[in-house]
Design goal:
The chain contains 4 helices and no strands. With about 100 residues, it is mainly alpha-helical. The protein has one domain. It is globular. The chain starts with 5 loop residues before the first helix and ends in a 14-residue tail after the last helix.
């Protein structure tokens, strides 16, 4: 099995978010105001943007990438890769939730 780098995972996350952004734009063109009225508040909750008392979690990252895509500048793959590296470094390789199945416990 090939090893996937953090940068490749970041590229994949940004690509998925761009596809989601296309769907958001289609809905927005059918129903103006959908993005700001319904989607943005729900995405902010999913990304836990306002919860500043805890560090960024891996489960928050996809929603945050979509929020970046919805912004003026779009998502930055290098920034997503740095966030991913930070999260994974904090978790460590030997945590009980690790997906490394090559280690014998």
């Amino acid at each position: 099995m090939a090893n996937i780098s953090n940068h490749q995972i970041a590229e994949l996350l940004v690509g998925i978010a761009r596809a989601q952004q296309a769907i958001v734009e289609a809905i927005e063109s059918m129903k103006p105001g959908f993005r700001s009225t319904h989607l943005s508040p729900a995405l902010m909750n999913a990304a836990r943007v306002r919860d500043t008392h805890r560090p960024l979690q891996l489960s928050d990252l996809p929603a945050r990438v979509l929020l970046q895509c919805m912004g003026r500048n779009g998502a930055d793959v290098d920034r997503v890769a740095r966030d991913l590296e930070e999260i994974l470094a904090r978790r460590g390789d030997d945590t009980p939730g690790s997906l490394d199945m090559t280690k014998v416990i």
